[in-house]
Amino acid sequence: MAAETLNIEVCYASDAVQFLRALRVPVGTTIEQAIAISGVLQEAPEIDLAVMQVGVYARKKTLDTVLREHDRVEIYRPLIADPKNARRRRKAAA
């Protein structure tokens, strides 16, 4: 029975929502399916998978990526500020 399912996590964080859910999903489940099963889209309706990037352990992946045991699916928000520009501003202010 253990070989037929995977233990995974789905996570998302924003200013208003911190979501982390552990799930058991069937072998062959994709990132998109795991996100749908997790319920994160109901808790954070601002998520738009057509625009937002996803990944597994900080490595960008596509929605059709098949998950493996202990994967953590992450939904990434768009950057508000360019990190390079932010560093330049901090350096100039110092």
UniProtKB/TrEMBL annotation:
InterPro entries hit by this protein: Mopterin_synth/thiamin_S_b, RnfH, RnfH_sf
A Pfam family per the record: Ub-RnfH
Positions in coiled-coil regions: none
SUPFAM superfamilies referenced in this protein's UniProt entry, alphabetically: MoaD/ThiS
Family: Belongs to the UPF0125 (RnfH) family.
NCBIfam families xrefs: PRK01777.1
PANTHER family found in the cross-reference section: UPF0125 PROTEIN RATB
Name of the protein in its database record: UPF0125 protein GTP81_25565
Organism encoding this protein: Duganella vulcania
